[in-house]
Amino acid sequence: ANGAAYRVAPTVLEELGAEVIRVGTEPNGTNINEGCGALHPASVLRAARTYRADVGIALDGDADRVVLVDAPGQIIDGDRILAMCAFDLHARGQLRGDRVVGTVMSNLGLEAALRGRGIELLRTQVGDRNVVEAMRRENLNLGGESSGHVVFRDHNTTCDGMLTALQVLALVVRTERPLAELAAVMEPVPQILRSVPVRAKPPLEELQELTALVARIEQDLRGKGRILVRYSGTEPIARVMLEGEEVGRLGELAEEVCALLRRLVGEEAS
User: From residue 67, how far is each of 37, 55, 213, 241, 267 by CA, in Å?
Assistant: First the structure.
């Protein structure tokens, strides 16, 4: 991503014996994350297809998160990385507490996949700091976010994109299975994300119209999906997330919630 790992990441991989095609390794002081890296993985995806690479690795500017690309050209996010690594650790008796830490944004498909192997997903609020705090509190050794922040607490105390990539590559080598096959252990549930600029952030639970609408949507989803409405911790934005089986219906419900938020707390609301 023309950032912190532009030199060390290719060097580490080359020293381990990989043939490396470099993308986003020409920083000029202003082009960090610019159309590349984990925030914009299309550049790595194109390179992986062009060079028929086994794996594409997209770090972000400060190199604490990673998104992967498999040989068929599928982008593999943090949830899928958590799933395959959790299964591997669990199979080898090294997943502490048979639990993995995720966040409220972790896909339902991850929770379902883990449950199928007898592994519990412990959810925290968004933020890798919250994930790490929960891991320390519960003495767990694997956690992360769908964004690609993943913590292997047996090796590090925080997120490290290259460490995550190396753990996945080690799994590929050890099992002699392609990344696409390993990532198939989880099937993501369709998810829709929307953002609404807000003028203020009154407690959402005090917005009675909103709580009533959320309750109705939860009933509509009938346990086969979920809805989450929260404020961004860093921006004047309300975020709406819906998961479920019918993408079209999810879009309709998301727009209904966004319209209400715009009326109640949106920038244009009086």
Answer: 8, 11, 34, 21, 33
Whose structure tokens read 């550049």? Answer: 43
> pTM for this structure?
0.90
| Statement: residue 270 has pLDDT above 80 | no
**How long, in residues, is the chain?**
270
Contacts of 58 (CB under 8 A, 6+ apart): 1, 36, 37, 38, 41, 43, 44, 66, 67, 68, 69
pLDDT of residue 52: 94
Stated as kind and residue range, the H or E segment containing 67 is strand 66-70
3-state secondary structure 143-167: EECCCCCEEECCCCCCCCHHHHHHH
Nearest to 91 by CA among 121, 122, 109, 117: 117
Backbone angles phi, psi at 213, to 5 degrees: -65, -45
pLDDT in tens, 144-164: 999 999 999 999 999 999 999
Rounded to whole angstroms, the Cα distance separating 186 from 98 reads 17
Per-residue pLDDT tens for 192-206? 999 999 999 999 999
